[in-house]
Amino acid sequence: MLELIQKRTQLIKAKAAELGFDFCGVSKAEFLEEEAPRLETWLNRQMNGRMGYMANHFDKRLDPRLLVEGAKSVVTVLLNYYPEKTVAEIDGYKISKYAYGTDYHFVIKDKLKDLLAYVHDEIGDVNGRIFVDSAPVMDKVWAKKSGLGWVGKHTNLITREMGSFVFIGEMILDLELVADGPMADYCGTCTRCIDACPTDAITDPYVVDGSKCISYFTIELKDAIPDEVKGKFENWIFGCDICQDVCPWNRFSRPHQTPAFDPNPALADFKKADWEEITQDIFQEIFRRSAVKRTKLEGLKRNIAFVKLND
């Protein structure tokens, strides 16, 4: 029986690599006992800000067996998104690297659908679901438990091989597989991410107050950006990569191999004036399948105006 379980695990990992995933790991589907009090404390301190959805489905966030009946394994995959060149690094406004190209939800979901179909073809009648931020799944925790990396002091997943610019997806299955052990934490005494955050969103090592993060203000917050963060955005108008950019582990980052993540060519020459004068047609053309669409043009213009007036 063990030999069969090992064979199935190897088949899934090999197929994940064939589909273009950079990493694939497995953990046992079980209650996240260590995370329960941390999540409860974080929510009680209202560090989710206006992101009320993060308080929903508390039990399901902590137990994958409530998402997939009879779940036995969580298969976690990572996909590198580090770009060959950064956009508007010198004379322009900045958007997070994860939003350069096609929205990763589409890209990873398509690959995971193929992976799940392969499981059905090769192994048989397996009950399973795929997840890419589409349900209350604590993806960084599962990636850590699957031995793919550790959660850094900035609360992003860090891999030893290529740093933290990776997307995460999961496949929860009622199939027994060989679980990988968790990886050790290699942040050591480094506090570069904490020291570099302009809004002091990393309140303690491994604790981020989401309601203070530039990404929250520029993406999630629909109201006016508060005055207390005036002059602190450093030209970021959608998301923020500061805590990742300063992380020493990202010296190992290398350009991704997923063409869908390449930015629209027009972005390469975007200057501040281009952002400030952007029209609905241009916005729609450049960000047609990008995560930037989440803010809508009005939200992007709000962010640009805030940065222009206060930075």
Descriptive overview:
By secondary structure, this protein is of the alpha+beta class. It has one domain (1-311). It has 11 helices and 10 strands. The strands form 4 sheets. Strands 1-2-7-4 form a 4-stranded antiparallel beta sheet, with helices on both faces. Strands 3-10 form a two-stranded parallel sheet. A hairpin with a 5-residue loop joins strand 5 (150-151) and strand 6 (157-158). The protein is globular, with a radius of gyration of 20 Å. It starts with a helix and ends with a helix.
List keywords for this structure.
311 residues; alpha+beta; four-stranded antiparallel sheet; two-stranded parallel ribbon; 11 helices; globular; queuosine biosynthesis
Summarize this structure briefly.
The chain contains 11 helices and 10 strands. With 311 residues, the chain is α+β, with helices and mostly antiparallel strands.
Would you spell out the secondary-structure blueprint of this structure?
Layout lengths: L1 H17 L4 E6 L6 H10 L13 H5 L10 E8 L13 E2 L8 H19 L5 E4 L7 H7 L4 E2 L5 E2 L7 E8 L18 H5 L5 E3 L2 E2 L5 H7 L15 E3 L3 H4 L26 H5 L3 H7 L9 H15 L1
Parallel strand pairs: 3-10
Antiparallel strand pairs: 1-2, 2-7, 4-7, 5-6, 8-9
